[in-house]
Design a protein that fits this description.
Rossmann fold; alpha/beta; five-stranded mixed sheet; disordered C terminus; two-stranded antiparallel sheet
Length: 151
């Protein structure tokens, strides 16, 4: 369990290669939980580890054994920032790539403006959201099913 935003403990699985680190690590955050919530990413985690990459997957607040209540889009930024900063502070983490499709991709995009230097890549796939320029000149993103923008 890794502490997310507002102190909630979020179920997090870490898969690392054998041997001495640090390693590049792929990170995903997901609301999608199946069965006992412990087996749905085992294959992916093991395959990354065989190839010399770490893989860390975290279940969103209120999902897959994570504490709290799941409310789509509401806590992804605060929890995602807590996760990526925790990961960047780990001695076995050399660099970070954020990957995901659909909502899992959105969990990476929503933190893209405040990621630590160890994040070298983000690869969202099929994430529908709108980019909005705010009054202060910063850009923000939000889910938009009326007019999706694919980046």
């Amino acid at each position: 369990m890794v502490e997310g935003g507002e102190g909630f403990k979020l179920y997090t699985k870490v898969y690392l290669p054998k041997g001495e680190g640090p390693w590049p690590v792929v990170m995903s955050r997901t609301p999608y939980a199946w069965g006992d919530n412990k087996g749905d990413n085992i294959f992916l985690g093991r395959e990354y580890a065989k190839r010399g990459l770490g893989f860390v997957v975290q279940y969103c607040r209120g999902k897959g054994g994570s504490e709290g209540f799941y409310l789509p889009n509401e806590f992804e930024r605060v929890d995602g920032l807590a996760m990526v900063n925790w990961l960047a502070s780990q001695p076995w983490c050399k660099s970070i790539g954020i990957f995901g499709a659909s909502y899992v991709g959105f969990t990476g995009w929503i933190i893209a403006d405040e990621i630590p230097e160890k994040v070298k890549n983000e690869m969202p796939k099929g994430s529908a959201f709108a980019v909005v320029e705010m009054e202060n000149g910063k850009k923000a993103s939000r889910i938009s099913m009326k007019k999706p923008v694919y980046l």
